[in-house]
Structure of Ferrichrome-iron receptor:
Amino acid sequence: MKINIFTLLVLFIVVTTNSFAQINTGMLKGRIVTINNEPVRGATVQFQHTKITTQTDADGGFSLNGVPAGTYVLVVSNIGYSALKQNLVIASGKNTFLNLQLSESKNELQEVAINTTKTRYQVKRSNSSTRMDIPLLSTPQSVQVVSSEVMQDRQAFTLNEIASTFTGMKANNGNGSFNMRGFTAYSPTDASFLLYNGVRGNLFLWSQQPLLYNVESVELLRGPSGALFSEGAPGGVINFVTKKPLTEARYNVDLSLGSWNFRRASLDLTGPLTKNKKLLYRAIIGYDRSKSFRNNQDKENIFLAPSLTYIFSENTNLNLELNYAHQKAVQQYDNGTFIRTRPDGTFDFNYYPDNLTIQSPSDYGKTDNASATLTFNHRFAKDLDLTVVQRGVRNVLDFTDHIPVGKIRNDSVSRAYQDWRTDRFSLQTTAYGTYTTKTGSIKHQVIIGADYNRYGWTKNDYQYKPSTRISIFNPDYSNDPPASSVEAEESDDNKRITNLLGLYIQDQLSFSEKFKALLSIRYDNYNGQETPLSARDNKQGDELQATGWIPRFGLVYLPMTNVSVYGTFLRSFNPQTSNNVLSGGPFPTRTATQYELGSKADFFNEQLSATLSLYQINYANILTAAPTEENSHRQAAIDGTRSRGVELSATGTIGNFNIIAGYAYNEHIVLSNSAFGKKGDRFANAPKHIANLWLKYNLRTTAAKGLGLAAGVRYVSDQVGLISNQNFVFPEYTVFDAAVNYQRGRYNIQFNAYNLTNKHYFTGSRSSTVTAGLGDPFNYRIGISYQIR
């Protein structure tokens, strides 16, 4: 599959140019709130007796561009609220802003409410990328948001299952490894590329697929984002926006069944606990269990997420959110299927059956993850806000695993055994104030903030032992696991505490409605110490002391109210996650620098949002696996790599169609010769081309009202599995999906089919040519959801 980048650019420019042809028009923007000053999401905003309409986003905001000058009657409506009408004059070339308030209604129309929110794919605002309430159109960074409606239509229940919906992103395997802009984002230890509501503290470990039970939307902030969050993986940061308590009572239940004995159930309850609706609650309960087309895979998840919000006044509120995730598995993650090396050094990806695995039926994994987040918001005045967040996370893991050692010979392979028990934590305090002011004609939105993060582990008990060699076709697991008398070749028994202090200031300057700038600077100080807990720890303790400045600079120009052009300079600064001497450390600090140019536009009466971006990321001292037969855990810092590419994405609604489409070209190469690769070598798990399309048609006719038909396709070009072996290349693949749903009243019944052609494909490599991540064959899911009230 070949895609002409020049053609895409020309099409985008032509469509954008057509937008400039609009004359004699004005613009209306606004925000819809309740009497408690809460945003009203999904409200319909329409000029009466016209087709000019839109819906409010998650923050209650809306925008109508290109409105012909004239006098109108504006109608705002939403289920559960009394409709509001207001006469309005739209003047040519003028921008009008309205703050409107809807009053609650006693009419019960939940059926329509479901239909209203079901089709919302487009999200126009994100506070996470700048911590400011500004539209994505005015944000000088490529940001993509996947809403809960998309997740529901896809029946995606983990981040891995929704990853391919993001332009240029893919899951590398069945655990927490992802590729964004050519870089592997992975969370093996203390820090993470995953944020929750813009705050550090990943709930899930590296060996898990992050669950989406309590997630309202998933945001991808592309490129290094260390200026606000400290942790900034060079390819991007994922932010989970969690579901919050609502002022109106809603009770939802969801049930799903699928291939490989998959079953899932969830309950979502929310509403007020007091008559004055000042104390609100939300309780989310989830359970799922599944096997696999692979041998010895059995996984069970239990998820609990209660939360409370207390509204002191329209200016002050306090939110407490608790999360608990328990997972029990025979094998917590899949180490991958076997790959045969031919005598000439090439690879046969179809030789070994897909069900065979190097892991043992005696392996197991058990995790208990918990978090608590307390968020305080207060508005001192119209132009001054304060947010204080305290987040604590604890991850307890008990895990055993068999891994390959050396190469496959005569259809047999040597193995090693890992036994790991660890207790990890993260305590994050974040406080920042937002102040809006003016200096002459220049408007400022200033944020001043501080972060303190104390993280690490209080226990890290790890043993690595040799294990038995097995026949791949006829494995004998009778001697698994190794006897306790077998001496460990590697052994850890330590604790590690790291303290991070970050200070930052950011200013968004509005020189006019058309020209804006974003300036920020951050200072981070890391101080950490690893301490052996017994003589069994045969490694030297790590010491970490690192400081650095992180700048960010962006410009935005809006030639039209629905079109913007931006440029940005981003950096990240992160200490290595490992500095142990026996792993090859200490390692120099990782730094990433990104240059990006792009354009954003809202088309079809602002119902479809499109983004075009061109970028280059220079990454120094990236830490990568460099295993040897003597030390399978050896790592090394590469002198430097360069990732550059083009991305084009579109999300929204055209008539009865909901659409998510994207194409990404990326070239990620090594910049210098080293023991692990030559100059110009391709980076691991980084395909040059990724394309995705998801299209849903919602039938509106009387006979078929409530019926939805959807189809999707994703294409991934070939990718190198290891930097050290450029001949280890996974073939390109194209996968087709489809779905149908029927919504009637409070019910929604849905059927999803994945990989319709049963394509045999590989998602990525871990650290050898012996095994590789295997994509799922044809499978299906059936789901039913019911809104109790």
Q: What stands out?
A: The chain is about 5% helix and 55% strand.
